[in-house]
């Protein structure tokens, strides 16, 4: 199997961590290929990352990819068995992909990292300040009521745990750190989830790719005459109703 996408993307990280959890063999194409040409659109019509290629089959959208992996490779399930728990796990994955994505990718990582490195623009400090003062506390207050004091959400680590914690790594890349005194459950949960081998094993690859990836990819896209979008830059998977770069 092959996964196309950036190690730094929280959506790609989610898929890779789930594949690690299942013990699946895969390779990663860390540079979004084809720069938006017809071949890329063939495997990802909406130009989303990640893309999973499994033999002659390909699929995109991280949630769809993880659902496929759980059905095609049922050993070590990613979701709990009880229907109500499964529904809650899916909701928490969706909450992470949308709400935490908006906060930690668009409002922090994009503003504090991507704008500077890709376009040489100044950070929108007003947006960052509002996010830190209003949006982050609201999200963390909610998570504090949902996350366990110890262990993981449904016993063993699974899709919901990985989905939530993944965005906090991008938050850390933007200089954000959870106030453990105010949100102790969330801070501890995120810490032990990111420390789990299924995710921790990805960090060295992220460090290598993060060091030069965005600038190099930007220049390659410009040389190819391709549009600069969040997908071609390999930063994120756009969700329904969310703006594109």
Structure at a glance:
The chain is mainly alpha-helical and 245 residues long.
Report on the architecture of this protein.
- The protein is mainly alpha-helical.
- The chain is built from nine helices and four strands; from the N terminus they run βαβαββααααααα.
- It has a four-stranded mixed sheet with strand order 2-1-3-4, covered by helices on one side.
- Helix 1 (about 10-20) crosses helix 6 (about 160-175), helix 4 packs antiparallel against helix 5 and helix 4 packs parallel to helix 6.
- The model is unreliable at about 235-245 (pLDDT under 50).
Key structural traits:
disordered C terminus; 245 residues; 4 strands; mainly alpha; 9 helices; globular; four-stranded mixed β-sheet; Glutathione S-transferase Yfyf (Class Pi), Chain A, domain 2; single chain
CATH architecture of the domain at 83-199: Up-down Bundle
Number of helices: 9
Q: Radius of gyration in whole Å, from Cα?
A: 17 Å
Secondary structure: helix percent: 55-70%
Mean of residue pLDDT values: 87
In the predicted model, the low-confidence regions spanning at least 5 consecutive residues are 236-245
Overall 3D shape: globular
Class from secondary-structure proportions: mainly alpha
CATH fold topology of the domain at 83-199: Glutathione S-transferase Yfyf (Class Pi), Chain A, domain 2
- The CATH top-level class label of the domain at 83-199: Mainly Alpha
The N- and C-terminal alpha carbons lie at a distance of 29 Å
Major sheet details: 4 strands, mixed
Walk me through the topology.
Layout: E1 2-4, H1 10-22, E2 27-29, H2 38-43, E3 51-54, E4 57-60, H3 62-72, H4 83-119, H5 125-146, H6 159-173, H7 184-195, H8 197-200, H9 203-224
Parallel strand pairs: 1-2
Antiparallel strand pairs: 1-3, 3-4
Helix pairs in contact: 1-3, 1-6, 4-5, 4-6, 6-7
């Amino acid at each position: 199997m092959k996964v196309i996408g950036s190690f730094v993307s929280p959506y790609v990280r989610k898929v890779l961590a789930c594949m690690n959890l299942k013990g699946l063999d895969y390779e990663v194409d860390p540079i979004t290929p084809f720069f938006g040409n017809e071949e890329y659109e063939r495997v990802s019509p909406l130009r989303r990352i990640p893309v999973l290629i499994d033999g002659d089959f390909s699929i995109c959208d991280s949630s769809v990819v993880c659902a496929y992996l759980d059905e095609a490779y049922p050993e070590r399930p990613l979701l709990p068995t009880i229907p109500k728990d499964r529904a809650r796990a899916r909701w928490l994955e969706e909450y992470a992909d949308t709400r935490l994505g908006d906060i930690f990718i668009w409002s922090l990582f994009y503003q504090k990292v991507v704008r500077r490195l890709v376009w040489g623009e100044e950070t929108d400090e007003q947006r960052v300040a509002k996010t830190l003062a209003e949006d982050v506390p609201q999200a963390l207050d909610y998570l504090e009521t949902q996350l366990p004091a110890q262990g993981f959400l449904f016993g063993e680590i699974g899709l919901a745990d990985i989905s939530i914690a993944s965005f906090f790594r991008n938050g850390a890349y933007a200089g954000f750190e959870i106030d453990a005194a105010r949100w102790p459950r969330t801070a501890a949960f995120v810490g032990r989830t990111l420390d789990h081998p299924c995710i921790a094993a990805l960090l060295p690859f992220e460090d290598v790719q993060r060091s030069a990836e965005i600038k190099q990819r930007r220049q390659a896209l410009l040389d190819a005459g391709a549009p600069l979008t969040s997908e071609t830059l390999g930063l994120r998977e756009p969700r329904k109703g969310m703006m594109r770069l």
